[in-house]
Each structure stands twice: as structure tokens, then as C-alpha cells.
From TrEMBL:
This is 1,4-dihydroxy-6-naphtoate synthase. It is an enzyme of class 4 (lyase). InterPro entries: Menaquinone_biosynth, MqnD. It comes from Campylobacter magnus. Belongs to the MqnA/MqnD family. MqnD subfamily. The active site is at residue 150. Keywords: Lyase, Menaquinone biosynthesis.
Amino acid sequence: MNKFSKNISVAHSPDADDIFMYAAIAFGWASDERLKLSAKTDDIESLNLSCLKGVYDVCAISFGLYPHISSDYALLDTATSFGRGYGPKLIVKKNTVLKRNFKVALSGKHTSNALLFSIAYPDARAVYMNFLDIEKAVLSGQVDAGVLIHESILDFSDELRVERELWDIWCELAGTEKLPLPLGGMAIRRSLPLNDAIATQNLLKKAVILARAHKKTLSSMLLERGVVRVDDKNLAKYLELYANDESIELSEIQLAALDKFFELGYTHGFYSQKIKTSDYLVPSEYLDIRNS
């Protein structure tokens, strides 16, 4: 007899930050006897598209997707990635001068970087591809420019240069440098019983806390198993960018950044409604009220 009361399907990307934040569950360091989590991995835009189809109970998403799935999925307040002074990079070959309608490679229509890029460069011609192929597409001349994300921002050809940081675009659009740049998080199906949703969120949060507390040991395990795409030096740097202590739980300033991000998408016609992030989180206070 299965001792678990609920099977929860989870999907996250194979990027180092997602793997790191989920690893405590994968290695059995964090568990909940009421839940059995089964995880799959896929690139972020494939996960975005899966959420549009309602494939998984819990799924890593680009924040740029969220307003499109808000009626079916709530946002988790853990396992998030933001940028502070850094983020995706618009790159070109050296000596390239971009025309108004330049051709650009983006990692997916629903990614956060695509939203910001499209607002800043409305006349650019976008083509979408796996982020691992973007650098090659720029070098080969298939596209005039590309937006690098994830680990690819750490190490790219010296034949390329950064045309513009998306952090700078974000600051200009948001009108401030004080708000972190929203990139990605986790969404959970609204049809799950609330107790299960809260338990799942708590388990994922515990996993991030354990990962941060045992960063060195966990990083060594991931490197030994060959499940991350970077070396030890870049892994340490990457995790401090996108799987840091601020990934444990959404803060007030992160919520404000998400509100501004969703407002920008609405104002520029990418979303049909403007949402306030706090209204779309899992109401974890429910258990405290019920048990009081």
C-alpha cells in the first residue's frame, strides 16, 4: 500500500538554479509523508507551453507567462529567480550595427526576457529557439542578435559583445533601479486541494532552505553526477545570481517588482488584465486560520 496520499507532478528546467533548488527533494533530504512528488525536466519555454495546456500540477515558469495562466494556476512564493544589477543579455557580433527591424533570437515567446525585449524593441523581428542555440545562431549570421539567458550569460564567444543588458531595459521601463528584475518562479494548479497546495509549497521552500544551507556539499554532488552544464567556478557564481537566499520566499520588494512587471505587460498590450501578485499566491495563512 502506498503510504503517500497524493501524487504531485512537478516540472522544472534542467538549468543549474532549478536543479539546485529541487535537489533536496530529489536526494530525499526533504519530504512530506502526505505527498509523492514526481519530477520531470524540460527547457523553460516548453514548460511555459505545458502550463498553457495544464499538463503539470506544479511547474517552473517564466514570470512573463503567468498572467496567461492565472485563472488555472496560483503562484508559489518560493523557488524564484530575480536579477539585481544583472540578467539576460542582448548580444551581437563585434562591429555589428543593428537596424531598426533587426532579426533577433529569443528563448521563447512567453519568457520574461521576451516581454521586456518586445517592449523595448517593438520593430525587431523575433525568432524563437532553445537558448542553447542562440549564441551559435548569432555567430553564424542566422540572426543579427540574440538574448542570452541562464548559464549562457556567464561564458560566451569573444567574437560577441553585449549590445544591451536587459537589466538596463528593466530599470528604464520600471522607472527605478530599486526593483529586482523578475525572471522565473513556480506555479501550482488551482484545482489541487488547498491543503495539498500549501504542503507542496512548504516542501519546496524547505528544499530551497536546505540547498542554501548545504550549498557546497550539494554543488559537489551535482557536479559529480554531471547534471549541471557549468564547471564548479561558474556554478558557484550562477547560484549566487539565481538561486540565492532571496529565492527562499518572496519579499515585499519582489512582490512590488512583479506588480510593476505585470503592469508593464498590461500597459503595452501583452496581457488582457493587470494583476496584483499578492492576490494570486497560495493562501498559506488558511491553515493558521483553520487551526486557530
